[in-house]
Amino acid sequence: MSRSPETLLAGALALMISAGGGVAEPLGLGRAALPEEIAAWDVAVLPDGTGLRPGSGDVATGEEVFAEQCAACHGEFAEGIDSWPALAGGIDSLTDPRPVKTVGSYWPHLSTVWDYVHRSMPFGGAQTLSVDDTYAITAYILYSNGLVEDDFVLSDANFLEVVLPNHAGFVVDDREATEYPLFRAEPCMSDCRWPATVTKRAVDLNVTPEDPDGRPAGTIPAITLAAAGGAAAPEAAAAEPAAPAGPDPALVAAGEAAFKKCAACHKVGEGAKDGTGPALNAMVGAPAGAVEGFRYSKPLLEAAAAGLVWDEASLDAFLENPKGFMKGTKMAFAGLKKPEERAAIIAYLQSLGP
Amino acid sequence: MTDTPTTTRRGFIRAGIAAGGALAAAGTAAGTAARAGTPDPLITEVQDWASGFGDPVDATPYGMPIEFESHVVRRNVEWLTESPVSSINFTPIHALEGTITPQGCAFERHHSGAIELAKPDYRLMVNGLVDRPLVFTFEDLLRFPRHITTAFCECAANGGMEWGGAQLEGCQFTQGMIHNMEYTGVRLRDILAEAGVQAAGKWVYAEGADASSNGRSIPLEKALDDVMVALFANGEALRKEHGYPVRLVVPGWEGNMWVKWLRRVAVYDQAVESREETSKYTDLMADGTARKWTWVMDAKSVITSPSPQVPIRHGRGPLVISGLAWSGLGRIVRVDVSRDGGASWESARISGEALPKALTRFHLDIDWDGSEMLLQSRAIDETGYVQPNKDALRAIRGVNNVYHNNAIQTWWVKPDGEVENVEIA
Questions:
Q1: Same domain flag for B223 and B282
Q2: Cys-Cys with B301: which of B118, B256, B325, B349 at CB 3.0–4.6 Å?
Q3: B27-40 average pLDDT score
Q4: Which of B259, B291, B323 is the C-terminal boundary of a domain?
Q5: Which of B383, B379, B376 is nearest to B325 (CA)?
């Protein structure tokens, strides 16, 4: 491998800024990256449009794709459901006590939207959106923010014409000028202030996770009490009721762990409410679409009307490939490839009472 | 929880009597009672463990902490995030000593879950403004010159919940988005030299193999300085949740840039301005503008013991105040401790070596008279930067900054030894 002048320049720079550190001679490690490989992995889109793929999408198509792929978390109007990110609104809210940072109110570059949607969305199904659908979703997000009309078509040709409202809202880190001189003064050691009084207490907010005894979670046990806690353990075990017949407890436990992938959208247990997805208590063996009040997708309601029951077989097929099993489902989840993981989750769902 | 301390304290005294003279030195009522008690059966009677066998070797081919330490775990705050696969948890810094964080309890931040990526499936691509776009396997990385560096990794949002006021009880939750490990790996500059950075290259963009990709732009100058492509942490392979098999180590800079499951390093003439460096990890100021590229983690410290999760249970007398200090700009040279909310200060001991851009342990040994304390610590680094108080930061940044809260922490230690997270005026 020959060394180009540029390499030498970079090497010289490295030498300058690393006193004592040696500059590496190329070792001949690695192999050439093929154009196809670079095209597959270098999908970044930069503010000046570098990396943008040819294509286009309109607001109306974007609305459809958004409803199917994005609205479960971001809301039909990109307003954000629960604490999922709002993508629209919040314009002029950045000085409010509760600023709303959206594409319209905060993001400086449209390239960031395209890049992130194309590379990492939808959540749980990244890299499944086509180039044109990405343009369409981006156009719809602009429309949701009132930045374009409903007949707008976004493409690689007009992409750089779109300037987001907060484009000029960012300054490069200036702490060196605005903070460091203030904070590099010689610190006071005595008589530095009036006697202090407590003005705010975290306990008043009461939002810290707690141990069963009401102390902050993870509090170090008193050394002498730790032994007493150990002695009490067998008692608790004895108090456990005889296990009822049902799914294999080990499988249920594995399912409970795996269910964390679902828990963002589906709540379970006593008092579970519908979230982005319906609550899932006692759902194995129940007819599909049976959770009252939940707004199911049209295809799911049609399947339910046709008699779909969530038994082990149908659940397994749905969990393996949600969109394959039911085209148009609101469940944006990509699916569980491992059969044992699906079996565990189904066992866990079976273990849940009404 | 207001009645808990009484109960606990009573239980503690009873247990103290049973356990014998361990507390005699404290000079408290409990200590006095214990001193007057009967001989300690743990000493006078032969215990099982002093007579029979313990576990054979290989009982645990890879050991876990003993069951009595089961409270020392990462914990999360569920209401913070919508999904546990795009979330964060907290290092139990209140329960750790020294400076190295074990991988198994070091905080996790994932943007789309911790992925399972085997070494045979691992590829690292270097492309962009380079002479030779290259692909490396894990085996290739093992053949580069190897280096060791110890560095803290702190999430930019560490303490972010405390901007508006004291909110969470315990330094695990208020300062626990941090860990400190000894990494072994390859200098990024050696890998870049292999590809040959072109003169137009000004930025390096690093991204991960997970669904979030979590791409971040790093100026070339930093990339050629001390950034490491790490293969090992604390002597063993990186744990899955820390980016197995390869993560980026960016000493002194915010944790979000320490890309895990590193799959691509690209050289560009500009910053990518990815989602993680525009919509997130930018610092909103009171006037509605936002700072971007706020990479450096400024000097900070916290007293880890006593703290809300580590109440003082031994009464008055000798008390070890223990804490951590760190700076993204270099070494910690001094840590001061105040017992009166900042009216007066005394310098603590730096225990062990103060490495640049790494956690530094400080201790202050005092004779506690049992009176109330408003405990604070402030770190001073080699650039002369003195950790500010929260009001000083708020005066500049407002309360919606979210990130880079390196303010002085106040613990209210009460005469019964219980500790609260408070703000003072």
A1: yes
A2: B325
A3: 59
A4: B291
A5: B379
User: Nearest-CA residue of chain A relative to B270?
Assistant: A46
Among B190, B192, B229, B423, pick the best mutation site for testing chain A contact (most A Cβ within 10 A): B190
Find the residue in B nearest to A208 (Cα): B168
Is there a contact between B205 and B215 (Cβ–Cβ < 8 Å)? yes
Interatomic CA distance for residues B136 and B118, integer angstroms: 14
Measured between alpha carbons, how far is A187 from B323 in angstroms, rounded to an integer? 19
Q: Are residues B124 and B203 in the same domain?
A: yes
Say what the pTM is: 0.82
Q: What is the model's pLDDT at position A182? A: 97
> CB–CB of B193 and A196 under 8 A?
no
| Interchain pair B289, A170: CB under 8 A | yes
Q: Decide which of B140 and A288 is more confident.
A: B140
Asked whether residue B182 falls in the same domain as residue B310, the answer is: no
Contact, B198 vs B131, CB < 8 A? yes
**Residues on chain A touching B405 (C-beta within 8 angstroms):** none
Does the pLDDT value for residue B17 go beyond 80?
Answer: no
The two structure tokens encoding residue B77: 């705050």
Query: In the CATH scheme, what is the homologous superfamily, with its name and number, of domain A249-350?
Result: Cytochrome c-like domain (1.10.760.10)
Residue type, A101: K
**CATH code given to domain A56-161:** 1.10.760.10
Are the beta carbons of A201 and B135 separated by less than 8 Å? no
Cβ within 8 Å, pair B424-A112: no
The residue among B210, B180, B103, B191 whose CA lies nearest residue B142 is B191
Interface contact B125-A42, CB threshold 8 A = yes
ipTM of the complex: 0.89
Residues of B numbered 254-273 whose beta carbons fall under 8 angstroms of chain A's beta carbons: which are they? 263-264, 266, 268, 270-273
Interchain contact B70–A (C-beta under 8 A):
no
Q: What is the pLDDT of residues B221-245, one digit of tens each?
A: 999 999 999 999 999 999 999 999 9
Q: How far is A241 from chain B (nearest CA, A)?
A: 25
> Do B317 and B408 fall within a single domain?
yes
Domain end among B291, B319, B341: B291
Chain-centroid distance of CA A236 in Å reads 38
Q: Is B73 left (phi over 0), alpha (psi -120 to 50) or beta?
A: beta
Q: Using the beta-carbon criterion (under 8 Å), do A202 and B144 form an inter-chain contact?
A: no
